[in-house]
Amino acid sequence: MMMMMMMKVMMMVTVMVSEGSIIEQTCKETPDFNLCVSLLNSDPRGSSADTSGLALILIDKIKVLTTKTLNEINGLYKKRPELKRALDECSRRYKTILNADVPEAIEAISKGVPKFGEDGVIDAGVEASVCEGGFKGRSPLTSLTKSMQKISNVTRAIVRMLL
């Protein structure tokens, strides 16, 4: 009886270790291990997800960051009216991420066509870079755009694992 209980405990520990390690194993193949692990561990789906699931979690993180950035842009219109032109450009760019890139990436990964998912993820990082460049060095969105670029790079690395 005791031996049977010990075997059950050992099997449970093995399962728990292997579930937790998929995130670490996957994140080792990305350009920012710590960011990757942090983002995936912050989502309860991460511990039981396969590689496609991990990519979808990160795409969700891109969507959340996009929404946060759009809210910040909307607030800046009142505080920094002199930046209207650059803010307009950023608003267009981030709406493209939200309305085109994220849905494209989700659909592609969900349907098993990761190449198109990669395109959407890459474009999210490009859109953020173009937004940042529009401020000519005095961007109030730098931390958000840098975060988008980093998340996009990590997500792209995971999507490439599906190719």
Short description:
This protein is mainly α and 163 residues long.
Word description of this protein:
The chain is an all-alpha fold and 163 residues long. The chain has a single domain, classed as Butyryl-CoA Dehydrogenase, subunit A, domain 3, CATH 1.20.140.40. The chain is built from 6 helices and no strands. Helix 5 runs antiparallel to helix 6. The termini are far apart. The N terminus is likely disordered. Belongs to the PMEI family. Keywords: Disulfide bond, Signal. Pfam families: PMEI (PF04043).
Under CATH, the topology can be stated as: Butyryl-CoA Dehydrogenase, subunit A, domain 3
For the largest beta-sheet, the strand count, sense and barrel status come to: none
What is the CATH class designation? Mainly Alpha
Q: Into which percentage range does the β-strand content fall?
A: under 5%
Which class of secondary structure composition applies to the elements? mainly alpha
Mean pLDDT: 90
Helix content: over 70%
**Contiguous uncertain segments of 5+ residues:** 2-20
Query: Count of helices?
Result: 6
Q: Give me the Rg, rounded.
A: 19 Å
General shape: elongated
- Fourth CATH level, the homologous superfamily: Invertase/pectin methylesterase inhibitor family protein
How many β-strand runs? Answer: 0
C-alpha termini separation: 47 Å
CATH architecture heading: Up-down Bundle
Order of helices and strands: HHHHHH
Keywords: Disulfide bond, Signal
Signal peptide: 1-20
GO molecular function: enzyme inhibitor activity
Protein name: Pectinesterase inhibitor domain-containing protein
